[in-house]
């Protein structure tokens, strides 16, 4: 690449950033449409040459040195560039076409910092995505299931003229698809007339015969449809594919919009970019009007769960729309009606936005191995008692083969010619199409007719231009043998938009191929509107397909308008108590159960860490002569699964016992180990990820990873020394304290939090009551070392010594660890707190207890004299009896809570709000 004229980078260049962008930005590849300049880059003529042809070397990307405000030659450092800038005279570059008016205005609105500020904005954008916890899960990613969402700094700008073409064409196509689906599940006239081959409907694995004859509310089958578009070298948009089952992107494009407009607020206003909120509002109003009985109707968003690749979007979209995020286990069907299982009982659900593929929706009638769906859901749909967006059974519309038949279907169904063309497509199940396309395989894409269905020879799409002659012959043979499962589509060079890349120094503008996903959403019965924006997906530099799963990235989409910008917002300026109550999502039984167990496992991990630290410290101390103490430590370690059952006891073989305890710390397969509890914390937290702050979630993930890494490193070395184990436990203890602080101080006090707190206190009550009971049973509390160990296990050493000085009698222990209503680890405090929070969970007025609260002992009746009364054998029978009753009551209450709030059995089977 020839060096650019240095006159472009004098002091006046800051006043003309658009001219600088034009000079710095390389053109699109030959034959591709250049979004930045609004025209296709011409293909250089091929000149015959003697001898073998040598392909031209690719041009090096032009870098931009933000400090020197000038380009950096390929292979040259910034310092070299700066030292040469005053002495080197560059030859003028070939004249580049001017930028489009929109891009010219965008760069002119960069502000006083101009190009110098772009690296800072890119870093700010990356930090914002990370801080907001925007993720896209990649199942095959070796670095873990979650990675940050990839978003480019520059938006894709669509002119009003281009958008008019897109909008009209998309509206037309969604009308056609909706009627095709209505016919496929109704009279099937299109099949009878031969306008669609039966193999693409009845023979499609996604066609649900169980819904034939069903008519959805409003006679509307498609409520959300996505269309993937590409711009060809002629500047026109072409349809590449369509998504109707559970199209993704509606949430990510919102996050993209918020993030990019924060970086370029002046440009966003100056370019008259259409807002998005009005379309989302119209979609929700349309769904509410079409829902079966219910005022206001209760609409939920059905997600496969936190391990789905787009789970962040599901949670984000549910919050934005003010609807309930649910999983299949949150729902149940009773008497052909759909209900949400909440802490207050069964609540009717009238509408469902599904983000789940159809085959997993109902294990009774579809995939029997699905744990993601709702048994009986299809029966509720057939009964007309629930609206589902989109109606199940639309998978056959996603087949690429259908694109070739849509022009004829449009003329038949709506008597119109399609305004937005699709790429030439041949379904190889037809003999004529097969014979026509085989000679063209090298210039086309080969796609599966039934994508996503393993039983029908599904495969990844391939480009014929990337295949050798032998591979093309092999594909041709497969197509001839199984023509119906193969669809061939013409290849279109994707347009390229400018992106900001930091991979070659201070940053540079680089062209990247882009595909645009736009959405049509229903705003009423058989009525749709197109969202004025979309999700732009960018390919990797060497990739031919735009795919987030293959490492692609995204960009915001700015649709310009010549008219007034619609400034509708979903934020209500004058909220009322009723409107606020409607937006307060109910706590589902699943979320409540996971919060309950998050609390229990956090407390269990803290107890295990404290017990393990205490045990290792005592085993390594000089005073190891107390047999009752060693027996007590062995009992506690065995009961809490810190050591296997067959390990010799501490009095029998102190060192073997110590090594066994250390070896078990990082075991994630045995309940009770520290590693197992930390993993359970993460799994429970992942199920309620939308309820946790990003800092809290990061802390949970780091704690587990750090502890298991330390354990694995020691295991690889063949030993895990007590000193190293203690350091790992100390680090885990600090991290768990941070988790406890987040749970105590940074979470809303709703019913979900109450269950988290109840779970913690149930675990604490059972653990501490058993520890005291075991200490009294074997007499460890009557020795100084055992007494101190007991107080330390209750995390009350400092308080004890400050209050009682050198006293070591049973009365002082009972006073602090059993009766003290101000000590959060005393049995009285834990029991009283549990009684109150259980009553509050049931909706009782302050100070009023419920029947379940009375299942716990009442601390008001405990007295020091009664509990410290010695028995005939110099024991304390009343105290031991109380400790046993506390432990038994804790786990009895746990079972009762599960029955009442999580499984919704027996007396809890009632509906609310019907």
Q: What descriptors fit this protein?
A:
single chain, 914 residues, alpha+beta, four-stranded parallel beta sheet, 28 helices, 24 strands, elongated, disordered N terminus, disordered C terminus, DUF403
List the helices and strands and how they pair.
Layout: H1 17-24, E1 33-34, E2 39-40, E3 63-65, E4 70-72, H2 78-84, H3 101-108, H4 118-131, E5 156-158, H5 160-184, H6 189-192, E6 224-231, E7 237-243, H7 252-263, H8 265-270, H9 277-290, E8 299-302, H10 311-321, E9 324-326, E10 331-334, E11 337-342, E12 345-348, E13 351-354, H11 377-382, E14 387-389, H12 406-413, E15 425-427, H13 431-437, E16 444-448, E17 462-463, H14 469-481, E18 486-490, E19 496-501, E20 508-524, E21 527-530, E22 535-538, E23 553-555, E24 557-559, H15 577-582, H16 589-619, H17 627-639, H18 654-664, H19 674-687, H20 694-716, H21 722-745, H22 751-778, H23 784-793, H24 797-804, H25 810-819, H26 827-841, H27 864-867, H28 877-902
Parallel strand pairs: 5-24, 8-9, 8-13, 13-14
Antiparallel strand pairs: 1-2, 3-4, 6-7, 6-20, 10-11, 11-12, 15-18, 16-17, 16-18, 19-20, 20-21, 20-22, 22-23
Helix pairs in contact: 1-3, 5-12, 16-17, 16-18, 16-19, 16-21, 16-22, 17-22, 19-20, 20-21, 22-26, 22-28
């Amino acid at each position: 690449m020839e060096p650019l004229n240095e006159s472009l980078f004098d002091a006046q260049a800051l006043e003309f950033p658009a001219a600088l962008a034009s000079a710095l930005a390389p053109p699109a590849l030959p034959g591709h449409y250049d979004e930045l300049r609004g025209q296709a880059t011409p293909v250089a003529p091929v000149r015959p040459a003697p001898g073998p042809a040598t392909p031209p070397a690719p041009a090096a990307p032009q870098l931009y040195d933000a400090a020197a405000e000038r380009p950096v030659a390929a292979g040259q450092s910034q310092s070299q560039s700066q030292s040469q800038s005053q002495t080197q005279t560059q030859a003028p570059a070939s004249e580049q076409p001017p930028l489009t008016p929109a891009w010219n205005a965008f760069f002119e609105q960069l502000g006083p910092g101009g190009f110098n500020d772009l690296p800072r904005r890119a870093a700010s954008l990356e930090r914002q995505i990370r801080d907001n916890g925007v993720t896209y899960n990649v199942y095959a990613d070796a670095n873990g299931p979650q990675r940050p969402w990839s978003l480019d700094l520059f938006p894709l700008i669509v002119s009003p003229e281009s958008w008019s073409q897109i909008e009209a064409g998309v509206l037309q196509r969604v009308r056609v698809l909706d009627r095709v689906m209505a016919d496929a599940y109704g009279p099937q006239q299109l099949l009878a007339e031969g306008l669609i081959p039966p193999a693409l409907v009845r023979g499609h694995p996604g066609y649900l015969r169980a819904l034939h004859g069903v008519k959805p509310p409003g006679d509307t089958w498609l409520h959300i449809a996505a269309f993937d578009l590409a711009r060809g070298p002629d500047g026109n948009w072409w349809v590449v594919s369509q998504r109707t089952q559970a199209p993704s992107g509606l949430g990510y494009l919102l996050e993209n919009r918020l993030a990019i407009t924060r970086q370029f607020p002046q440009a966003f206003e100056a370019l008259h970019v259409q807002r998005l909120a009005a379309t989302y509002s119209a979609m929700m109003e349309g769904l509410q009007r079409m829902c079966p009985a219910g005022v206001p109707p209760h609409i939920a968003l059905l997600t496969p769960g936190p391990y789905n690749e787009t789970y962040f979007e599901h949670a984000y979209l549910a919050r934005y729309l003010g609807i309930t995020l649910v999983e299949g286990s949150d729902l149940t069907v009773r008497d052909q009606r759909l209900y949400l299982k909440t802490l207050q009982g069964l609540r009717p659900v009238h509408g469902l936005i599904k983000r789940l593929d159809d085959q997993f929706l109902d294990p009774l009638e579809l995939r029997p191995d699905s744990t993601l769906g709702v048994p009986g859901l299809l029966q509720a749909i057939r009964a007309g008692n629930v609206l589902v967006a989109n109606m199940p059974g639309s998978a056959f519309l996603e087949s690429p083969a259908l694109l070739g038949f849509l022009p004829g279907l449009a003329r038949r169904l709506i008597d119109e010619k399609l305004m937005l063309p699709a790429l030439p497509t041949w379904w190889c199940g037809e003999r004529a199409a097969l014979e026509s396309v085989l000679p063209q395989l090298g210039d086309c894409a080969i796609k599966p007719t039934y994508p996503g269905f393993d039983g029908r020879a599904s495969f990844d799409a391939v480009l014929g231009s990337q295949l050798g002659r032998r591979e093309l012959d092999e594909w041709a043979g497969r197509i001839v043998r199984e023509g119906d499962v193969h669809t061939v589509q013409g290849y279109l060079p994707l347009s390229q938009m400018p992106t900001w890349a930091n991979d070659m120094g201070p940053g540079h503008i680089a062209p990247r191929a882009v595909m645009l996903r736009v959405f049509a959403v229903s705003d009423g019965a058989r009525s749709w509107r197109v969202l004025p924006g979309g999700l732009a997906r960018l390919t990797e530099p060497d990739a031919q397909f735009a795919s987030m799963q293959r490492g692609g990235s995204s960009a915001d989409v700015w649709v310009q308008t010549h008219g007034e910008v619609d400034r509708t917002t979903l934020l209500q300026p004058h909220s009322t108590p009723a409107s606020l109550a409607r937006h307060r999502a109910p706590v589902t039984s699943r979320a409540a159960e996971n919060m309950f167990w998050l609390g229990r496992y956090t407390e269990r991990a803290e107890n295990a860490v404290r017990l393990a630290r205490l045990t290792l410290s005592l085993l390594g101390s000089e005073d190891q002569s107390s047999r009752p103490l060693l027996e007590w430590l062995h009992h506690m370690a065995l009961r809490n699964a810190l050591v296997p059952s067959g390990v010799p006891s501490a009095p029998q073989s102190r060192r073997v016992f110590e090594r066994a305890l250390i070896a078990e710390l990082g075991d994630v397969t045995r309940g009770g180990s520290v590693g197992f509890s930390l993993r359970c914390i993460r799994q429970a937290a992942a199920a309620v990820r939308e309820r946790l702050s990003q800092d809290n979630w990061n802390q949970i993930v780091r704690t587990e990873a750090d502890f298991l890494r330390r354990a694995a490193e020691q295991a690889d070395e063949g030993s895990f020394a007590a000193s190293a184990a203690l350091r790992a436990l100390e680090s885990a203890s600090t991290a768990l304290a941070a988790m406890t602080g987040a749970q105590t101080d940074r979470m809303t006090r709703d019913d979900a939090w109450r269950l988290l707190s109840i779970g913690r206190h149930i675990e604490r009550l059972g653990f501490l009551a058993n520890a005291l009971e075991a200490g009294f049973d074997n007499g460890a509390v009557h020795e100084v070392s055992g007494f101190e160990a007991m107080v330390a296990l209750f995390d009350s050493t400092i308080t004890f010594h400050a209050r009682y000085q050198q006293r070591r009698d049973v009365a002082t222990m009972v006073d602090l660890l059993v009766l003290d209503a101000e000590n959060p680890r005393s049995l009285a405090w834990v029991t009283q707190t549990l009684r109150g929070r259980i009553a509050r969970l049931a909706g009782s007025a302050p100070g009023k207890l419920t029947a379940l609260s009375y299942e716990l002992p009442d601390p008001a009746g405990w007295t020091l004299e009664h509990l410290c009364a010695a028995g005939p054998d110099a024991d304390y029978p009343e105290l031991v009896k109380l400790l046993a009753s506390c432990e038994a009551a804790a786990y009895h209450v746990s079972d009762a809570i599960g029955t009442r709030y999580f499984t919704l059995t027996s007396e809890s089977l009632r509906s609310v709000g019907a």
